[in-house]
Amino acid sequence: MHTKEIGKNIYQVELNTGGIAQLICSYIVTGSNPILVESGPTNSIPNLLSGIKELGIKPEDIRYVAVTHIHLDHGGGAGTLLKQLPNAKVIVHPRGAPHIIDPERLWLSSQSVLGFVSDIFGKPEPTPKDRVIPLTEGTIDLGDEGKLSILETVGHASHHLSFHESFNGGVFPGDAAGTYLPECDAVVPTTPPPFLLEPALTSLDKLIALNPTALYFSHFGKANNATNRLKAYKEQLKLWVKIAEEGEREGLSFEQIRDNIIAQDPIMVQVGQFVKEHRIYQKTVMENCVRGVVGYAKQKLEKTIT
């Protein structure tokens, strides 16, 4: 079974990307107008289609695929997926739309940044321009008196959206609220370069203002106590940046700053070993996300000096 019911009209689809459980999931919001949230990566599309079939949903009935952003693990499979969903269009941030339509630069950049991880996700295929809907806000009718509201939540990326569903009052935050590790019931930052703290905090405030009942993490799964988690994540981001700024002022190496983050963030003390040993997170969290906050701290310090 790929699917699991997690709320009224909400199903989680385990994508089992690269054979790795609890790494990436998509969501299906059912109703008279079913919608997918996150295509996931190209190599996981067969598992996603299997999940759609499990739920008895006809591919031709799906009208929209809403992607939080265009990174390979969230929207990389959109072009491949739409070949199997004849009536669907992709909802994406306007800054991300060109890279859904022509993903070549996205793929080259991903290979450079992610290395072997990009091969696990797979190369994205182009999405026809007439099947792309660029939005930063709006509402999608789900039928059955339900709606999906679109919010711009930049910070993790300049092309990031989140979605709020009315059936249960939950939020699909993409990477705006971090990576949830269900094995540890903990959240770790998603802050790859070029990370910007202030927009990220503003986006979190938008989500907090919704007072959501749950967070449906793309990595990975449903988490309750949503508002408190969002508030805690704000403080965690500020802590990582503070540690990085102190390290930059002291002239510490990247490795030393990373080790300080692991030692001084109570969450990383709890989950650090798990993340270090994880096939994907050792690259994305321990390297790329730390580089994001270090890069932000370095730029901030340079501006202060000049």
Outline of this structure?
With 306 residues, the chain is an alpha+beta fold. It has helices at 45-54, 72-75, 78-82, 97-101, 104-114, 116-121, 197-209, 226-249, 254-264, 266-277, 281-305; strands at 3-7, 10-14, 25-29, 35-37, 64-66, 89-92, 132-134, 138-143, 146-152, 161-165, 171-172, 179-181, 186-188, 215-217, 221-223.
Could you characterize what this model shows?
By secondary structure, the chain is of the alpha+beta class. The protein folds into two domains: about 5-235, Ribonuclease Z/Hydroxyacylglutathione hydrolase-like (Metallo-beta-lactamase, Chain A, 4-Layer Sandwich), CATH 3.60.15; about 235-305, no CATH class. It is about 40% helix and about 20% strand. It contains eleven helices and 15 strands. It has helices at about 45-55, 70-75, 80, 95-100, 105-115, 115-120, 195-210, 225-250, 255-265, 265-275, 280-305, and strands at about 5, 10-15, 25-30, 35, 65, 90, 130-135, 140-145, 145-150, 160-165, 170, 180, 185-190, 215, 220-225. Strands 1-2-3-4-5-6-7 form a seven-stranded mixed sheet. It has a four-stranded antiparallel sheet with strand order 8-9-10-11. The protein has a two-stranded antiparallel ribbon with strand order 12-13. Helix 9 (about 255-265) crosses helix 10. It is globular and about 60 Å long. The termini are far apart.
